[in-house]
Amino acid sequence: MLVVQVLGPVRAWRDGTALALGPAGRKALFGLLVLAGGKPVTRAELVDALWGERPPLSATNVIHTHVKHLRQVLEPDRGARAPSTLLPAVGDGYALTPPPDGVDVVRFRSLVARAAAVPRDDPRRAADLLGQALGLWHGRPLADVPALDAHPAVVTLAEERRAALARHAEVMIALGAPRDVLPALVEDAAAHALDEAMHALLIRAHTAAGQRDQAFGTYNLVRRQLAEELGVSPGPDLTAAYLDALEETPADVVAAPAESRPAPPGVNQLPGDVFGFTGRQAELAELGRVLGAERTGVPIVVVCGTAGVGKTALVLHCAHRIRQDFPDGQLYVDLRGYDPRSPVTAEDALSRLLDGLGVTGAEVPVDPDQRAARYRAALADRRMLIVLDNASSVDQVRPLLPGTPGCLVLVTSRNSLAGLVALHGAHRLDVDLLPAPDSTALLRTLIGERVRREPAAAAELAAQCGRLPLALRVAAELAASRPDSALAELTGELADRRRRLHVLDAGDDVRAAVRTVFSWSYLQLPPPVAKAFRRLGLHAGPDVTPFALAALTGSDQDSARRTLEVLARNHLVQPAPAGRFVVHDLLRAYAEELAREHDPAPERSAATERLLARHLATASAAMDLLYPADRPYRPDVAVTPPLEFPAADAARAWLDAERSTLVALCRFAERDDRPGYAVDLANTLFRYLESGHYADASTIHECALRAARRAGEDGLLAAALTNLGALRRLLGDYDQAARHLREAVELHRRTGDDYGAARASSNLGIVQERLGEHDEAASLHLEALALHQRLGSRYGEAAALLNLGNAYSRPGHHADAVEYLERALDLFRRLDDAVGQASALSNLGDVCASLRRYPDAVRHLSEAQEMFQRLDHSYGVASALSNLGTVHTRLGDWAEAHRCYTSALEMFRDIGHRYGEANVLNGLGEILRTAGRLDEARDAHTSALRIATETGDQDERDRARAGLEVAHQHA
Predict the structure, then answer these.
(1) Which of 71, 170, 297, 302 ranks highest by number of CB atoms within 10 Å?
(2) Which of 652, 367, 662, 420 is nearest to 541 (CA)?
(3) Helix (H) or strand (E) holding 901
(4) How confident is the model over 65-102, as pLDDT tens digits?
(5) What count of other Cβ atoms lies within 10 Å of the Cβ of residue 21?
(6) For residue 771, how many C-alpha atoms fall within 13 Å in the half-sphere facing its CB?
(7) pLDDT exceeds cutoff 50 at 482
(8) d(Cα 490, Cα 477) in Å, to the nearest integer?
(9) In sequence order, what are the beta bridge partners of 18?
């Protein structure tokens, strides 16, 4: 009997023996005739399908030759002159008429039609028929004839499969067996990134399987893709699936096995309660009623009101009163929503909140949706109080909301944030000006007996301050600093000051009151302190240190520290932990306004130039201690570093403490048209950031690339592309990485930068290796090695040898890999480069495992892991653990392999390293399958398949498919 397959590679068998159908063109013709279902296909139609608008002159002869060979293969017993019954000529064309039962596409369509006719009360029968139909597929239709991918018959058939898959998934979800369809749904959704219906099904399957994190991750991914590619929001199907996932109680199912990390002890990030808090009894009572009410979702309170009205003071006072009700801790972040220079993005806010939850630096995912999911997971089953201060929009707040009840969220904003009320059930509390009696009472608390002696003047002072707590406190500090002056004298000065501020908008009483008080306070400052206050308006960072103020003012740090203390006593800045100070956004805006009014543009520019230069110089000095080998290839700095570090630990501590400021300065450099600083900061910090600070690395390198493109300088652009391409490679975004790196290689060559060309070629070689292009990868690494040797760059030579060792770490080339890796290890040791040594040891251990030299493998990998741990290099630790997991698997030590894999998986997920995650998930699937834990094995391989499909990693995709096939066979 003749059997024909077109649902995958084109194949045919006669009585179980495979037939040689010939080259791709002949298979294409055969496939087209099969898809015609016995109907004739004209020569013109065949010519058009095979060659399009430019057929060769010999097209008809080629078709005739293909048909002749196919007849010989399909009908070997037919006589030389006997007519063909299987592939006869019909009119001006041909028809193929094999037995219908032997053609997979005919059987597929028959099974789907039978499933559609099954009564709805027999879903198991429908599921069985659809499962049989989908089981006939072995890849894309005519998978080994890519020239026909866009042919209408092929496209139609592919859509028929997708429709059958969707129907099968719906039935299986209804039957309570979502796990059986998850692998196919994951692969299809990854291949059709904008198909809302398929993603909605995938979300429902994840939810039904108890995999809510995967459900939320899928929704957030497709939501972002729809916005970026089409500029639209999720439609009703996708939104409904997401809402169902939100309402679903988490099942006791784990998507991929991993050991849970102990929760960090209770943290308290709340700023101190406000001294002299006065009034607001009605608001506190309303907050109490809201918090005491029974709720099914996350309780959210939005406290809104005008600037300076005391929203933050009210929320912090309330938070300190109820903090004992939240034993797992209290989180706080100032979103700076109205800061024109540097509002905090939701992504940055998530990083700060995760830091409070014990998820730091390398553990913070780069992808915003994954970061939000990590945050929600860290909050699950905890009772925590979360204060989101100074929000400007719903979009700034929504990603920061917990996913499960138990936490309380208090938000302050000048806006009503109506979306939080409408979509998330938030309660809005409007805060008005302090009542006159409470305003006077606050002045009495802050000033003392003079208020009792001069009640009329006190009332007038409260009115002049607009009954705004911020203005009242600034005015009270001025009054307290002049104990011999009557309040009436002070109110007279303030009234006169207001009359002379002609630039005010007279219709805005609140703004007028605030600016008048600020102006009055500012005029009391000594000139050097007043100048320093103006300089604060030029700083883009989230807070200010004596180091930063010294740069802005051109003074020394001791003077800057004393100046900040004076400003703090005048309530113009607020002290914060670790010797830092924060500035209210109204005061920051006022400082910037004064700077523009009183300081010439060249002076302002010189101040920010010093700020950028000193931070860059100090970062460079820190990097020299941490990574001395590549010192010659970091940007030159124009100033002497103002800080000296006694040891590498101190250098790393400074970088950790100032990382958010360095990110803000890179953004400022881009915005202020200083591309050189943006790119130099990115180049200088690259090695530090690549050790695991991927979220901040992404921000910095993207800023640098935008700045470089705008500047139009090839050298800057090449460096920025190399850095961002290398980062994208680490994150598993191989297509984007390859695009950036190919452009970088060309630019480096054009500018004659051999070191840059070598570095870009090395990173591109690693990308090609991941994509399965091993020969091109080796060629690129050899090119990089030659360039480094010509330059005399010993570190670059060692890195190129390391990459060559990795490229040859495949069957048939392991001996070459060992040679290159041992040379790299020796050179890194002579250079005293600890990271390089650890990397070489880790990769050498992996190759030794492939050669079955297991004792050597364990020794090398264990040494690498210890070195990476000492260096706080998360990616390195995870890689070594992953390789150790592979070795222990081959040694049959399943328990130790599982421990290594699960530890590596958690770290790869935390830092957003997708290749590592897929690799480890496949390893876990293999040992779980061996242990008979088939459901968990399928989950692990399914997750690996999704990641590998999205990143284009052919090796891990094939490995995941093979693992799933074996798991199903053993089920």
Answers:
(1) 302
(2) 662
(3) helix 894-911
(4) 999 999 988 888 888 778 888 899 998 899 998 888 88
(5) 21
(6) 21
(7) yes
(8) 12
(9) 13
Q: How far is CA 247 from CA 170, 208, 298, in A?
A: 19, 12, 12
* Dist CA 510 CA 494 (whole Å): 15
| Cα(950)–Cα(221) distance, integer angstroms | 11
Q: Tell me if 348 sits within 8 A of 660, measured CB to CB.
A: yes
**Four-point Cα dihedral 439, 443, 446, 448, nearest 10:** -140
Token pair recorded at residue 352? 């700060």
What's the pLDDT tens digit per position in 239-280?
A: 778 767 766 533 332 333 333 344 455 688 888 887 788 888
d(C-alpha 63, C-alpha 139), whole Å: 26
- In angstroms and rounded to an integer, the radius of gyration of the C-alpha atoms of the chain is 34
**Residue with token string 């740069």:** 551
Three-state SS sequence of 337-402: CCCCCCCCCHHHHHHHHHHHCCCCHHHCCCCHHHHHHHHHHHHCCCCCEEEEEEECCHHHHHHHCC
Question: Which strands make up the sheet holding 11-14, listed edge to edge?
Answer: 2-5, 11-14, 17-18
Instruction: Please state, rounded to an integer, the average pLDDT across all residues of the chain.
Output: 85
Alpha-carbon span 388 to 390, nearest angstrom: 7
Q: Nearest-CA neighbor of 837 among 811, 809, 801?
A: 801
The terminus-to-terminus CA distance of the chain in angstroms comes to 31
Reduce the DSSP state of residue 11 to 3 states and report it: strand
**Partners of 352 in the beta sheet?**
none
**172 φ/ψ angles, rounded to the nearest 5 degrees:** -65, -35
Cα–Cα–Cα angle for 677, 682, 688, nearest 5°?
135
> Token pair for residue 406?
């138990």
CA distance 66 to 410: 74
Residues in the chain, total: 971
SS3 content of the chain, % helix, strand, coil (to 5): 65, 5, 30
Q: Is the dihedral of CA 481, 486, 491, 494 positive or negative?
A: negative
Tell whether pTM > 0.70: no
Alpha helices in 39-100 (DSSP H): 43-51, 59-74
